[in-house]
Model the fold of this input.
Amino acid sequence: MNTPHESENTTPGPEKRGNALPTALHVGTGLFGVPAVWVLQVLSSQTLAAYACYPHRTPLVDPKWSGLTAQLLLLNVFCVVLGGAGAWYAWRAWGKMRREAAEDEPGPIRFLMHVGFLMGVVFGIAIVFTAAVMMVMNECGTTQ
Done:
């Protein structure tokens, strides 16, 4: 027999909702994962191009080795895919938390999930724009 107090609570507990509270992976993907991919993209691309085009502080017209464009393109495609996957994961985790979390869930977790989702989107766009620079630049820095 149910007591009136038990029948009024229609919100399932965390064990019935599939544990809607996010883990550190959910929060960290948007907050740190996608920005880390952007940092990896910028540092790797600039280091690779600087070493190929400006060895020993001497600018070259052509890079030190052939295939620099293909290497940079491959690196940027990898970063776009990885950053997009991270932003998608953060978006999915944020959406799941919004649907399944009760209104009385901790506010800081909700805030961090929202900020993580937004950072994932913003840095995902930054990754695409950084990759787009390759379309207007020749191998060693002159515009097309």
Summary: The longest helix spans residues 68-100. The chain is about 70% helix and 0% strand. The chain has one domain: 34-136.
